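Bit of a strange request maybe. I'm writing a small parser for structure token strings and I need a real example to test against, not something I typed by hand. Could someone generate the tokens for this chain?
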Amino acid sequence: MRTVYFDYNATTPLDPGVRASMLPFLEDIWGNPSSVHHIGRHARAALDDARDRVANVFQCKPSEVVFTSGGTESVNLAILGTARALKDKGRHLITSAIEHHAVLHACDYLAKNEGFSVTHLPVDAEGRVSPEDLQRALRPDTVLVSLMAANNEIGTVQPVAESGAICRVRGVSFHTDAVQWFGKEPFHNIAQFNADLVSLCPHKFHGPKGVGVLYVRSPLLPDSIIFGGSHENERRAGTENLAGIIGLAAALERFVPKPVFPPDHLWNLTRDLIEAARQIPSLRFTGSQTQRLANTTAFLVSGTDSISLLAALDLEGICASAGSACSAGSVAPSHVVRALGLEEAGDQALLRFSLGRDSTPAEVELATTALRAIIRRVQSGQQPAKRR
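Reply from user aminoacidic:
Good idea to test on real output. This should exercise your parser:
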């Protein structure tokens, strides 16, 4: 049976060209970049070159590029490290109610354990933060604002450049979790976010897992959150994942300046998906029709739960999600749904379809046809058929 993969916001397959660029660093150039002998120096030269390549795409200084283990660590370093570094100036943080848990849990930790206070900005019915609300929430003791560039569950794109400009005028550090942005939205240079810190990871745009980047605008210097050696200019201890970093640089060069997720193609597919879904009585589109990632559509399905729905779709060969992959298996309503004010009778499942460069109109038609039958079956309590 054919597999339809509509979960590209969770992860993407490693591009063959990116994989090829990594292979020499899994076989021949395997040294520790911190070693002083010639094997280590070869690795160090490759690491320095990769940092220069990333900085070239970003149009920033190489010293402003910090390699990490992934998006979560990049976010944690931005929030925990910056808050701690600036705590003498104030202990007030601002974020939104629909951030990824990497942001929310880091802020919660600081509030519970280190004397910080956190303001969670509300969002409108489409999941957008108001810059005016941000302006009003800023206080003399605010040291960091963290707002995501694009929501991973409903795809809503935030006004990050405007928000960053507000923070800069007020002298407040601004971080954006841009993990879902890169490879999907237009990118010119890192300055377009008006951010002091930007998090990303390449497995969202056909690069490898287990590696990420935090851009840190000079002269900001977040405190380290991992202790050990003096790697990454003493900002992140631990031997660098050289093969992963090479893959990151290759994916960034190939798939970010010209987005690997083709926007026109994906806008057409997701519009067709939304139109077809409107014919299913129990399905309701949520998020923004216009201010969203071109590849992402999210629906609320009444009369069922996410796990039953996803299991039934999987039996038909359709890979979708109930929001964040990091919350897989949770039966609690999505915090994003709650923030939108759409958690009504408690019997609504969030269903996310996130398409990719290889998605086709035939796959959209197959998914919506199957979904119509599945919802009817799940809501009636019938057992799903075994996968053929």
